[in-house]
Amino acid sequence: MTLMAMFEDVWRDSGLAPLWQAVSPWLALDQRQLIFVVATPVFIGVFLWEYLRLRHDPVRVDARESVRNFLLGAGYQTTELLFAGIISFPVFALAYHHRLLDIPLNLATAALLWVLTDFCFYWFHRGSHRVRWLWAAHVTHHSSERMNFSTAMRQNATNIFNGGWLVYVPLALIGFNPVWIGVCYALSLVYQFFIHTTLVGRLHPWIEWVFNTPSHHRVHHARNPDYIDRNYGGVFIVFDRLFGTFTEERDDQPVEYGITRPVYSRSLIVNWCHEYRDMFRDMARRGPPGQRLKHLWKPPEWRRPLARSRHDGLTVESRGSDCEN
Q1: Are the beta carbons of 149 and 196 closer than 8 angstroms?
Q2: Using an 8 Å Cβ cutoff, are 114 and 184 in contact?
């Protein structure tokens, strides 16, 4: 008996073969996580290089926070790996089953899918800032007051549950294979890791005009009034220019990183869930059900409108929420 036959014999007698056959299509679909697993050592290496450059500047890098950022990212990758197969993959498979076209994979269609995926990312990212339900997950990425490569890893473990991935489903319905949609999405996130830094200034003008760069992304992470909620692009910045959300980094206005209501906590759970807590707290306040539900889809800074009520014979004005972001 050959060595390979012995391996097969052990595997067959283990009783796990039927389980593997059931699970393997799920794992094959999630090429995103494979890309992230391969890229993570590179991310760590690049961050360590940056850390050695900045370690004496606590304004730009903090070792404890950086470790926490990588742990936040690990939580995100874990929930994506565990739950994508039962939450998002069935939706993509259904859409692809009813696809409108059979699109072959070649250089031209791959380039088209890359651009379309980034187009979808733009709207997903813009929605993640302007729809509070989506912002409740995305806020984790913005809550650091430092900008370095570890900030890119600062992700929310609830992302898979809040449904933002639905913006990519139309690509499968058109006829693009969901596996390749996931690959494009993952490679986009790999690219975006490298624009989370203060060590790179402005690049050549044509690069700055077409692509999302560290300069553009520093603006995106700012809480300055003139910068906030701008530059949503993933790989390309042209969609921001096209839809009026582009703002250039200015030398006379240094970037202030973070969110307008800072959350200073070392807890991973607090960093993941604080905005959900605040949102549901605002929804729990008295008021018509329709007004309460608006906290889910209105912008993070939205407040319930002033309402008149009669109390003890006197007319008073009250506000249903004091939500601010």
Answers
A1: yes
A2: yes
pLDDT along the chain (325 residues), means of 10: 76 72 65 84 96 96 96 94 88 94 95 98 98 97 97 96 95 95 94 97 97 98 96 98 97 95 94 96 93 95 70 41 40
Residue 314 bridge partners (DSSP): 311
For residue 235, the one-letter residue type is V
Q: How far apart are CA 203 and CA 259, in angstroms?
A: 27
Residue type, 37: V
H-run or E-run covering 319: strand 314-319
Placement of tokens 């990758």 in the chain: 77
Please give the full DSSP string across 106-124, using - where no structure is assigned.
SHHHHHHHHHHHHHHHHHH
Residue 65 near residue 138, CB atoms below 8 Å: no
Is 84 strand, coil or helix?
helix
DSSP letters of 276-311?
Answer: HHHHHHHHHSSS-HHHHHHHHHS-TT--PPEEEEEE
Token output for 141: 């990425």
In this structure, are residues 154 and 72 in contact, taking their beta carbons and an 8 Å threshold? yes
What gap in Å lies between CA 289 and CA 283, rounded to an integer? Answer: 9
This prediction has a pTM of: 0.87
pLDDT at 157: 96
Q: Return the sign of the alpha-carbon dihedral for residues 186, 188, 191, 195.
A: negative
Nearby residues of 189 by Cβ (< 8 Å), 6 or more positions away: 36, 234
pLDDT in tens, 76-119: 999 998 888 889 989 999 999 999 999 999 999 999 999 999 99
Closest CA to 141 of 104, 192, 97, 99: 192
